[in-house]
C-alpha cells in the first residue's frame, strides 16, 4: 500500500536550524531515518556521506554611555560680582565623567564545541531527498567570522559631539585687545619777552588690562539690555513685523549670552559609547568578570588600571531546568541507537552590570550554553523549527 506521504510529495525533506540569521530560517523535514554524530564524541568516518552543522551559543553585549562634562572658567570670572553683581560662576577648569546609561542585549554565535555530522545512509540516498538549512556560506562554521568582528570591537567605538574650535570655548568678543594712547606734549620756550610753543603728538600702544576688558564687556551687556528694552517698548517708533522683532530680540539674547559667559564660564558635554562582548561559560555557578574600570576624573579605563571603580558583569543561572538536566544525562548513553538532530534546552539566567556597589542594569535572559544539549529521535517528526538565538526547539509537527 503506498505511503500517503509519498502521494503528497515526490521527495522527502528534512532540515535543521543551523543559522543565526532569520533570513535563512527554514522548517526541518525529518522523514525517514537519520543518524547525527557529535564531533566531540569521536569524529565520523571520512568515508561517510553527510552534512556538518553546529549549534549556537550566546554572548552578552554591554553598551555604556558615558557623558564627559567640561567646565571652563570665564576669563573675567573674578570681576563678575564687581561689574555685574553675579556670584554664581565657574571658578576652576574641570572635567567630570558620568555613566549616563547602560544597555544589555544577548546575541548568538557559533559554538565551536557543538559541531555535528548528519550521516546520510544508503537508503536515504536512493529513495529520499534531504534539505538542511544552513547560513549563506553553506556551513555554520562561517558564523565564526561574524563573531570575530563583534569581538574585535574591543572597548567600543566612540561618538562624541564636535568640540568648539580651539582650546577655549569662549568667543573673542572684544576687539581689539590693544589700547592706543595719544599724548599731546606742549613745550614752551621763553626767550627774553617772547614765548615759543612747540606742540608734539606722541602715540603709544599698550595692552588693555583684564579689568578694563571686563568693564567694557559689562557695559556692552547693559547696552544690549537697553536695546532690547527699546525694541520691546517701541521706543524707536518703527513698526517691525512680529518675525523681524522676534529675530532681533533673539540675536540680542544670543550675543548677551556670549558676553555673560566671559564672566560666568561655560560647560561643554559630549557622549561616548563603549561596547563590550562577554561569552558566558558553562559553569553551573555562573560567572563574574570585570569589563573595565571607571573614574569620574578619567572616564573609562582598562580593567588592569589602578584607579577608578570596577565595572563588572555577573551571569548566574536561575536553575529552572534541574529536573530536565537529570533526564537528559540519563538518556545520553554512548552507542544507544541512532539519533536525530541535536538541539539545546537553554537555561534562564540573571545578568547584572555594576560599577562599584551600584547596579547600572540588570535583566533575565535565556543562555544556551548554561542549559543542556539533547537529541531528537531518529525518525518521528516531520517538521521541526529551531530558535535562531538559542538553538532550542520552537515548534514540532508530527505526521
What is the global morphology? elongated
User: What is the typical, i.e. mean, pLDDT?
Assistant: 76
Would you list the SSEs in sequence order as H and E? HEEHEHHEEHHEEEEHEEEE
Bin the helical content: 10-25%
Terminus-to-terminus distance: 17 Å
Number of helices: 7
- What is the SS-derived class? alpha+beta
How many DSSP E strands? 13
Whole-angstrom Rg: 38 Å
- Amount of beta strand: 35-45%
- Give the strand order of the largest sheet, numbering strands 1, 2, ... along the chain: 8-7-9-10-11
Largest beta sheet, briefly? 5 strands, antiparallel
Q: List segments where confidence is low: pLDDT < 50 over at least 5 consecutive residues.
A: 1-32, 135-165
Set out the fold topology.
Layout: H1 4-8, E1 35-38, E2 50-72, H2 80-84, E3 94-119, H3 122-127, H4 143-151, E4 178-191, E5 194-207, H5 210-233, H6 242-264, E6 266-278, E7 287-295, E8 299-301, E9 309-317, H7 322-331, E10 339-355, E11 358-377, E12 381-386, E13 393-398
Antiparallel strand pairs: 1-3, 2-3, 2-6, 4-5, 7-8, 7-9, 9-10, 10-11, 12-13
What would your notes on this structure say?
The structure is a single chain. The chain has 399 residues and is of the alpha+beta class. It contains seven helices and 13 strands. It has a domain at 4-92 and 100-161 and 270-286 and 319-346 and 366-398. The two termini are 17 Å apart.
Amino acid at each position: 500500500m503506498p505511503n500517503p506521504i509519498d502521494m503528497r510529495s515526490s521527495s522527502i525533506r528534512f532540515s535543521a536550524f543551523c543559522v543565526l540569521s532569520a533570513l535563512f530560517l527554514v522548517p526541518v523535514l525529518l522523514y525517514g531515518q537519520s543518524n547525527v554524530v557529535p564531533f566531540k564524541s569521536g569524529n565520523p568516518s571520512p568515508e561517510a556521506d553527510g552534512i556538518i552543522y553546529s549549534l549556537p551559543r550566546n554572548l552578552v553585549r554591554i553598551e555604556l554611555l558615558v557623558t564627559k562634562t567640561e567646565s571652563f572658567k570665564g576669563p573675567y570670572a573674578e570681576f563678575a560680582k564687581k561689574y555685574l553683581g553675579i556670584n554664581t560662576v565657574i571658578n576652576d577648569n574641570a572635567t567630570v565623567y558620568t555613566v549616563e546609561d547602560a544597555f544589555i542585549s544577548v546575541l548568538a554565535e557559533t559554538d565551536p564545541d557543538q559541531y555535528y555530522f548528519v550521516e546520510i545512509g544508503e537508503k536515504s540516498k536512493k529513495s529520499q531527498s534531504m534539505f538542511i538549512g544552513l547560513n549563506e556560506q553553506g556551513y555554520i562554521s562561517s558564523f565564526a567570522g561574524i563573531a570575530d568582528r563583534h569581538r574585535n570591537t574591543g572597548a567600543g567605538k566612540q561618538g562624541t559631539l564636535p568640540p568648539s574650535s580651539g582650546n577655549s570655548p569662549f568667543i573673542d568678543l572684544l576687539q581689539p585687545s590693544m589700547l592706543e594712547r595719544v599724548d599731546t606734549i606742549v613745550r614752551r620756550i621763553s626767550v627774553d619777552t617772547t614765548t615759543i610753543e612747540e606742540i608734539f603728538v606722541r602715540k603709544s600702544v599698550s595692552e588693555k588690562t583684564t579689568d578694563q576688558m571686563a568693564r567694557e564687556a559689562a557695559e556692552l551687556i547693559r547696552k544690549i539690555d537697553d536695546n532690547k528694552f527699546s525694541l520691546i517698548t517701541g521706543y524707536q517708533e518703527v513698526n517691525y513685523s512680529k518675525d523681524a522683532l522676534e529675530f532681533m530680540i533673539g540675536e540680542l539674547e544670543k550675543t548677551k549670552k556670549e558676553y555673560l559667559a566671559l564672566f560666568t564660564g561655560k560647560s561643554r558635554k559630549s557622549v561616548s559609547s563603549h561596547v563590550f562582548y562577554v561569552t558566558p561559560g558553562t559553569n553551573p555557578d555562573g560567572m563574574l568578570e570585570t569589563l573595565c574600570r571607571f573614574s569620574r576624573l578619567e572616564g573609562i579605563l582598562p580593567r588592569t588600571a589602578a584607579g577608578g571603580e570596577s565595572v563588572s558583569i555577573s551571569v548566574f543561572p536561575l536553575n529552572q531546568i534541574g529536573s530536565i538536566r537529570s533526564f537528559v544525562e540519563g538518556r545520553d548513553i554512548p552507542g544507544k541507537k541512532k539519533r536525530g538532530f541535536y538541539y539545546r534546552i537553554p537555561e534562564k539566567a540573571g545578568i547584572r552590570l555594576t560599577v562599584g556597589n551600584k547596579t547600572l542594569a540588570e535583566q533575565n535572559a535565556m543562555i544556551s550554553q548554561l542549559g543542556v544539549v539533547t537529541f531528537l529521535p531518529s525518525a518521528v517528526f516531520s517538521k521541526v523549527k529551531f530558535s535562531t538565538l538559542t538553538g532550542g526547539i520552537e515548534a514540532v509537527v508530527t505526521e
